[in-house]
Design a protein that fits this description.
The chain is of the alpha+beta class. The protein contains four helices and 13 strands. Helix 1 packs antiparallel against helix 2 and helix 1 crosses helix 3. The structure holds zinc ion (ZN).
């Protein structure tokens, strides 16, 4: 909630969920129990073992009323051996990631779309049952709102799981990765499929960045402007935008035809200054690029 200067702070109580932060001196872990400043001790159900001593903990409650403790642990870099390979990535709706390697393409997970349909249903239910101003919300409204939160959470978890597994594979197989610098708009008017795709891209890009940082790989963020107008084979930009329905891009200058998204993925590589030679379906062009270290 944004606050104007001089305005009193106004936040409805039922909109807020409790969240408490403790720094190193405010908490202690002893025999698997979390002791907080003020003499509160909690039994923690661990989702995974802590890799090192935590420096912070945030204790919070989610929309479903469950309590969580989230620990901050300094990450240790785990460099991977060099592979000599690079990867270009184009984000999309049908395929979350189209890459310069067929083995690393990531189809859009269907659960996102199905969940989006169910979500729309719950949201309609909530709209119908929305309490009038000054009235207490009905049981049906809260039930729909709880179902919405539950579904959001499940989908987010599935998305993150898919994204992490894919990112791990990408990072293990490539030294440097060039990705479209995608910024989801989350427009209210965009289609359900587009919203689900945007969420999948956002989660996948975040997982890739995190995994690359952890394993000492380089990620280049590439400006996506005109990627469908540039030819990855000869570098010439066409005068007209390729219509979205056109799935194949054929270069009028050099005659090379390739699937539209594959062409864009290769353009990412070139724009990042990476050598696309050796990448599937691309022939080396122009002066030889410096060999990958
Ligand atoms: Zn061309």
């Amino acid at each position: 909630m944004r606050q104007r200067a001089g305005m009193p702070r106004h936040k409805r109580k039922r909109d807020t969920r409790p969240s408490l932060n403790y720094t190193i001196r405010g908490f202690r872990l002893k025999h698997g129990r979390l002791h907080l400043a003020g003499g509160v001790a909690l039994t923690v159900v661990w989702s995974r073992e802590l890799p090192a001593a935590p420096s912070n903990v945030r204790v919070y409650q989610d929309a479903l009323g469950h309590w969580y403790a989230s620990f901050v642990v300094a990450a240790e870099a785990q460099p991977l051996p060099a592979t000599g390979a690079v990867l270009g990535i184009d984000w999309g709706v049908k395929e979350t990631a189209t890459t310069t390697s067929n083995a690393h393409d990531l189809p859009h997970p269907e659960y996102g779309r199905k969940a989006a349909q169910r979500l729309a249903r719950y949201q309609r239910m909530m709209a119908r049952r929305k309490p009038l101003k000054g009235q207490v919300a009905s049981k049906g409204y809260w039930e729909a709102s709880r179902q919405t939160a539950k579904l959001h959470k499940k989908t987010a978890r599935q998305r993150q799981d898919t994204a992490r597994k894919w990112a791990k594979r990408v990072v293990a197989d490539h030294d440097a990765i060039a990705v479209e610098d995608f910024k989801p708009k989350f427009l209210a008017r965009s289609t359900m499929a587009r919203k689900a795709a945007d969420a999948a891209i956002g989660a996948t890009k975040a997982a890739l960045n995190e995994m690359a940082r952890k394993h000492g790989r380089i990620v280049y963020l590439v400006d996506p402007k005109h990627t469908t107008m540039d030819c990855a084979a000869c570098g010439v930009r066409t005068k007209h935008r390729l219509p979205l329905s056109e799935r194949t891009s054929t270069c009028t200058t050099c005659g090379v035809a390739s699937p539209r998204d594959k062409n864009s993925a290769r353009v990412m590589l070139i724009r990042a200054g990476l050598n696309p030679a050796g990448v599937e379906g691309v022939r080396p062009l122009g002066p030889p690029a410096p060999a990958a270290a």
